[in-house]
Tryptophan--tRNA ligase, cytoplasmic
Amino acid sequence: MTAVAPKVEKEEEQVVNPWEVSAGKGGIGYDKLVDQFGCQRLDAATIDRVARLTGRPPHRFLRRGLFFAHRDFNEILDLYEKGEKFYLYTGRGPSSESLHLGHLVPFMFTKYLQDAFKVPLVIQLTDDEKFLWKNLTVNESKRLARENAKDIIACGFDVEKTFMFSDFNFVGGAFYENMVKVARCVTYNKVVGIFGFSQEDHIRKISFPPVQAVPSFPSSFPHLFSGMEQLRCLIPCAIDQDPYFRMTRDVAPRIGCQKPSLTESRFFPALQGESTKMSASDPNSAIYVTDSEEEIKKVNKYAFSGGQDSAELQRELGANLEVQISPNL
């Protein structure tokens, strides 16, 4: 009798980029991403150093490894230890009426960093990006940006040290000058290699990355940082945004700017499992900050068991949703 070879299931390749996150049954391979992207692990010594320099306990997202990787974060800490300042930059691509729990992760951590280091913050709303990638009109993209801004404001950032802007309303002047400087340094082959664009993608998608790159340069905001063109920038974000800033860090020295530093988080898993993240495109995958008590019962229908750490993190995030949004916004 001829032996039948056992069937070997092909491992599903993970895809992680700014527009798509998916993996096999084992979930996202974060060690693989660190190697693939070339970032560094956030180690215990760095986390302890944050606590020592700020006089505050490390944020639970650091203690639990939710923020797990970085690029040159220690250089930011070196500057702070010498008495020098830096600024923070994070953002949101508005494609839904409100933020979900996954969106809250970088904003909650950014608030901790702003409070702990007492530094300025710029928040970019990429309403133009969502118009380019989603089936939205310009007016709808701008409306969603305004709705998302309300949720972001409710996180409690220091109003004296925070500047939030939408691309449709702000891009121009010094910001646009930096965009074209970046664009001239990145070839078509380079941007295809980083982001995986195809010949079917329209030209505005291919030219979008400089828009997200230049908020990491203080010269893009002369009304905020006049005479501070070499001020360093720290970007808290999920690791799927890393391709934007690999490109930015490569270009920065060529246009006389400082490389931004990053702290990078894992994904908040979808309710269906760890093979992908919560998505604004799939309401059944996520818990939104505006969900009613009845709507949150979808957890019982769709949620997987994520273990004790996952359950505790969801409870902590839920506790932080008890914020009031001004009806005047």
About this structure: Residues 321-329 have pLDDT under 50 and may be disordered.
